[in-house]
Design a protein that fits this description.
Elements: E1 4-6, E2 12-14, E3 18-20, E4 28-30, H1 42-48, E5 51-55, H2 56-64, E6 74-77, E7 83-85, E8 88-94, E9 102-107, E10 112-115, E11 132-135, H3 150-165, E12 170-174, H4 178-188, E13 195-196, H5 199-212, E14 218-219, E15 230-234, E16 246-251, E17 259-263, E18 266-270, H6 277-287, E19 291-295, H7 302-313, E20 317-320
Parallel strand pairs: 3-4, 4-5, 5-6, 10-11, 11-19, 12-15, 12-16, 13-14, 13-15, 16-18, 19-20
Antiparallel strand pairs: 1-2, 2-3, 7-8, 8-9, 9-10, 17-18
The chain binds zinc ion.
Amino acid sequence: MDIAAVSREGAVLLGRNFAVDAHAPRPIRIVTHIHADHIVELERSYRESLLVVATEYTMELLEILGHYAPETKRVQMSYNKPIEMMGEIVTLLPARHIVGSAQVMVEGEEYRVGYTSDFKMPGTPPMERLDVLVIDATYGSPRLQRKWSDFEAMAALLSLVEEGLKYGPVEIYAYHGKIQEIMAELRIRKVREPFVTDLRGYKMAKVAERFYEVDLEPLLTRPEEGSSFVSFVHASRFDERRGKAMKILATGWELRAPVVRVKDGVYRVGFSDHATFKEIIEYVQEAMPKKVIVDAYRGTDTRITAKYIEKALNIPAESQPEL
Ligand SMILES: [Zn+2]
């Protein structure tokens, strides 16, 4: 048996007992974070696995999204606190991605393997001395390289928001996780206007407040007519034709410039929660594992990533599963 692999169903198989981010017939399911492509067949794992493991933040967010792990199976882990399970030691390490995100490391007597899940650099400590590293490659080739950092994108977003707030409300559209990160970044950068969101967004913001250690002060109702506030809405509800407020869509797939004006009052900001191609290579270079598996179930151009790692870093690498 391989000590690490990615199954056709998208499960990252680590050691003997762990299936990460999709279901597999293994005793322990780990959830690295709440994004849809990382909670594949979760309800099935709730029924069939012995244990379901996640950080406390991810557990709470899963519940807010309606995924209730059975009381008897749930194991909440803190970052950097190894736990022994069925003869292997598992550790969840921080990953800079969204609230509650974790990397997973599994150690047996003769092996040490790890999975980054989604991450950005810097801010994600590379797992060192691994026999096999399974890495995410959302932007797996140089053609997908963004020409700016997420710090620059955030600065561009901030000036857009500040400009918009002079004239009235601003609407920000993004996915779960990114919304809370933007809320935290705006508060850290002293944006004081009220943040308005729906009930789900409100509950998620309360979890994010503890994770980022920032008061986000979300509100459920809009302040009175004529005042300035920022409302946060899920990206799936973005409609550039609706209403007069300034609208900003935060998307990882805007590769032209940090800010692209779609039309008057409507903007796309190229803000991603994933490592750029260069950041992926930087991670591998710092971790220097004996072997790399690039997750092809979730990534893009992962064969190119693997080839690049072999050529540039001289580390055996492959893309899995074969699709
Ligand atoms: Zn993600």
